[in-house]
Amino acid sequence: MAQNLGQRVLWVLWPAFLVAAVAELIFFALFDPVDLNLFGVPLDVERMPVYTIGFFFFWAMTSAASALTVFLARSPFEVNRCPIDAADRPPGCPKRATGEEADCACEPAGR
To answer: 15 with 54: CB under 8 angstroms?
Structure first.
């Protein structure tokens, strides 16, 4: 499980990092940070902090898009599996490890 989570984090962050670098290159090739305005007020900052903030903004936006893609790409098994170990499931759960077949409110009777 932890390895799978680590893989998914890398699936999100690495492509987002690469896309953010390209987005920053394109954006700041077209716009000079000194000429940018925030709500109509000119920014009175150096170029380097604007480049840094711009990169992290692009990285956050592309990370959010990548995370949504990874979230929506989950298999039905991953979506429907129970996060509780079989031995720790409550009495009456149809998937409990003890093998007891009690009725569950979410399962039709006789199943």
So the answer is: no
pTM: 0.65
Predicted confidence (pLDDT) per residue in 14-55, tens digit? 999 999 999 999 999 999 888 888 898 888 888 899 999 999
Instruction: Report the chain's mean pLDDT, rounded to a whole number.
Output: 81
Three-state DSSP state, 42:
strand
- Sign of the C-alpha dihedral, residues 92, 94, 97, 100? positive
Query: What single letter denotes the amino acid at residue 86?
Result: A
Where does the chain show beta strands of DSSP type E? 37-38, 41-42
CB 54 within 8 A of CB 47: no
Q: What angle do CA 59, 64, 70 make, to 5 degrees?
A: 120
The span from the CA of 15 to the CA of 63, in Å, is: 8
Residue of 62, 66, 65, 64 whose CA lies nearest to 54: 62
Structure tokens belonging to residue 109: 């009777």
Task: Supply 68's token pair.
Answer: 């949504």
Cα separation of the two ends of the chain: 30
